[in-house]
Specification:
By secondary structure, this protein is mainly α. The chain contains 4 helices and no strands. Helix 1 (15-36) packs antiparallel against helix 2 (41-68), helix 1 (15-36) runs antiparallel to helix 4 and helix 2 packs antiparallel against helix 3. The chain starts with 14 loop residues before the first helix and ends with a helix.
Length: 131
Amino acid sequence: MSLIKWRDEFSVGVPEVDYEHQELIELINDLHRSVQEGVTRDQVVARLGEIFAQIAAHFALEEKVMQETRYRAFPEHKTDHEALLDDLRDIMDEVEDDGEFNEAQLTSDLDRWFSEHFRTHDAKLHQAFPH
């Protein structure tokens, strides 16, 4: 079962950004499936590390596009990116330090985290590009 399903509202209208959004959703869904199947803490930490690296690279691409297009809401969008990366780092640290993780809380945090960002900041970015 997928945690996050791709929806057209997640599209910002920039093919490479949209492709990366789909890849990130798939990584999160893979982690969700693995957690449901009883993955170890070390495997969760490794997968979160992969997600973190992909997200950081994705945010860099989005920020480059926003700067190139002189996107007016860039400062707010970048601030949200930084907050999301901090939150993910906190989740990773908690799993790594505590040696345990709450499966439902982990997947709920990831779902809320991405879906909120897509619905708010990325939705505004989508409106800024011609279709």
